[in-house]
TrEMBL record, chains A, B:
InterPro entries for the chain: HTH_HxlR, WH-like_DNA-bd_sf, WH_DNA-bd_sf
Keywords: DNA-binding, Transcription, Transcription regulation
Protein name, UniProt field: HxlR family transcriptional regulator
One Pfam family here: HxlR
UniProt KW Transcription keyword: yes
PANTHER family to which the protein is assigned, alphabetical: HTH-TYPE TRANSCRIPTIONAL REGULATOR YODB, TRANSCRIPTIONAL REGULATOR, MARR FAMILY
Taxon lineage: Bacteria, Bacillati, Actinomycetota, Actinomycetes, Micromonosporales
Gene3D superfamilies per the UniProt record, alphabetical: Winged helix-like DNA-binding domain superfamily/Winged helix DNA-binding domain
DNA sequence: CGGCATCCCTATTGATACTG
DNA sequence: CAGTATCAATAGGGATGCCG
């Protein structure tokens, strides 16, 4: 449940933590680690949107671009490349004229997208909660 | 399950989609919508890390700063403010000298962080998968 | 249609210094 | 300790143009 991948004591009241076994198991909390980079690809500005869209089914490039409102051609291409590189997205080219490029999720991508959609649905449902909190916060300033 | 908040047909083979009822229900796929902004706060560069850390328990400012390796003082303060503003994080000041500021998750924040941790744990476990995919991708270039 | 390369600008970020 | 303010660097991202 908790992300206690490191063996050091996490909650030192003086704020001083030990340094034993810190690198035995990867942790997102360490800078420049693989898991943090992977999370970055997934949660980046357009990454999670592309994954959520592809969770609905496969898309061709421009259809996906229309689905993910506001993304530029450049950023979508860049995002999809990163996702493909990390094994989340599959890219299939049909040698027709004009060319057809189909994007879909790999198994890994599908499992990731499922978790992501789970998160998104929670947040979509809680938009009013957040809006109320924000209004209260802004009022007290 | 799927994020089919809009009523239009999503999968038009010609790539042409209708435009009926597009704005009836909020959707992350629309630009400048509240849900997308909220997602941005949560999945932003430091947002998800702060939430994951606070999911372990409450932290004081500098302890959290040490936990989230690599974050600058400025960005952590900024991130926490955004999370507090949207009702995910609670900030409690103890009027001692020196001052003590404790950060913890609200109920909403805790439920969000739980989903997030779920995603993080999947990705941490799949780091080897991603690494292999990446190696294969880079080799084919 | 589905890209990649280039230019260019501004928003984010990080260092540094200062404050209650 | 827990911030805020200021400034400089830089990476993100849009616009444009070209190509298979």
């Amino acid at each position: 449940m908790a992300l206690t991948f490191r063996k050091r004591k996490l909650f030192d009241s003086a704020g001083i933590v030990g340094s034993v076994d810190d690198d035995l198991i990867p942790s997102v909390f360490a800078r420049d680690c693989a898991s943090r980079e992977l999370l970055g690809t997934v949660t980046g500005k357009w990454g999670w949107l592309a994954l959520a869209a592809l969770h609905e089914g496969s898309y061709r490039f421009n259809a996906l671009r229309r689905r993910v409102d506001g993304v530029s051609e450049k950023m979508l291409a860049q995002t999809l490349q990163a996702l493909e590189r990390d094994g989340l997205v599959r890219r299939e080219v049909q040698a027709t004229i004009p060319p057809r490029v189909e994007y879909s999720l790999t198994d890994f991508g599908a499992r990731t997208a499922a978790k992501l959609v789970d998160l998104i649905e929670l947040l979509e449902a809680e938009v009013p909660t957040a809006a109320a909190a924000r209004a209260a916060y802004d009022r007290s300033r």
